[in-house]
Amino acid sequence: MDGPGKKISIIIAAWNARHFLRQSLLSLAAETRRLAVDIHVVDNASTDGSAAMVEDEFPSVRLTRNAENLGFAKANNIALRRVLAERQADYILLLNADVTVLDGAVDKLADYLDGHPEAGAVGPALVLPGGRFQTGVGGFLPSALSGLAYFMFLGHVFPGTSEPLFIHQPAFSRRRKSKRVEWLSGACLLVRRGTVERVGLLNEDYFFYLDDIDWGKRMGERGIALHYVPWIKVLHDHGLTYRRILKEFNTRWLGMLFAYTRKERGAAEAFLFRGFAVLGFLLRLGYYGVGAAGRKDAERRYKLAETAAFLLFSLGIRRKTSPPAGERL
Questions:
Q1: pTM, to two decimals
Q2: 323: closest CA among 266, 269, 252, 246?
Q3: Which residues lie below 8 Å from residue 280, measured CB to CB, with a gap of 6+?
Q4: Which listed residue, of 38, 56, 199, 259, carries a Cα 20 to 30 Å from 217's Cα?
């Protein structure tokens, strides 16, 4: 994987994702050819043999074993501090353990930053195993307006002018044009080393989720542009922790999002944001309900149940819910 070009440090924080972590590391070896690569895996006290697998099968990877699960931000910061202290990397890539690199995506992301000096961070399209685009690739900071644009589908109808919390990836998929956003998903996020030196490390107040939104906010405050590039794609087995390990619906992101909006925008905007969420989940519940009626579509039924869980959580009725008994995860 090493080459004569610029150097990239790739950081993967992992927890009980041995199979996916192996696939991710193999894809990096196969698809990253024009950069000198330095890979760091920070294992958050996995019990599935993830750390031993890395040690045995990928001896060149720099492995850190944590004694406990420190969460996403703290785990990444362990490697980020090392990379910044060494001052060797031109670029730093945060990569989830359940991401598979496709078609030279890392090389292409680095090429994009080389050609766009105004951008300090870049993120690719995130594609699910079934071929659909993932929700939550990036977008605009939480506010009443970004909540309205996302939950009420304005980002679908007016993708070029609206500023939704989560941009609608399919609307950009056929364009070879980047989109400037206010935050990018930490699932696959390439930054210049200088960007991290200016902005600082991830906020360790966030155990899981919102750290990438907070990082994007801090980049924006320093005039650093973040670009979403839809023609570069990676495969993301999104929801691994909740769907396959914890086997429950993930409402944690909603609770943290509501709390973040209240902290950053105040009680009035947080109330509006939550109201738009309730209306949006009601609309989605109708959509998935009609689509699932009389059909043996496990994924559609799962989305219906998941959306119902999101709605109940947004209404403050239920805090934690699990998929229907026997539902395939």
A1: 0.92
A2: 246
A3: 150, 151, 152, 153
A4: 38
Helix count and strand count (H, E) for the chain: 11, 11
| Encoded tokens for 15 | 């927890």
Residues 148 and 191: their CA atoms lie apart, in Å, by: 29
Token pair 């991710």 in the structure block, residue:
24
Rounded Cα gap, residues 318 and 21, in angstroms: 33
Helix pair 267-292, 298-314: axis angle to 10 deg:
150
Which residues, including other chains, have CB under 8 Å from residue 37's CB and lie 6 or more apart? Answer: 1, 2, 7, 8, 10, 28
CB atoms within 10 A of CB 163: 19
179 neighbors 230 (Cβ within 8 angstroms) = yes
Copy the structure tokens of residue 327.
């539902």
Answer yes or no: are the C-beta atoms of 163 and 146 closer than 8 Å.
yes
Query: Quick one: which of 327, 293, 289 has its CA closest to 308?
Result: 289
* pLDDT tens-place string over residues 90-128: 999 999 999 999 999 999 999 999 999 999 999 999 999
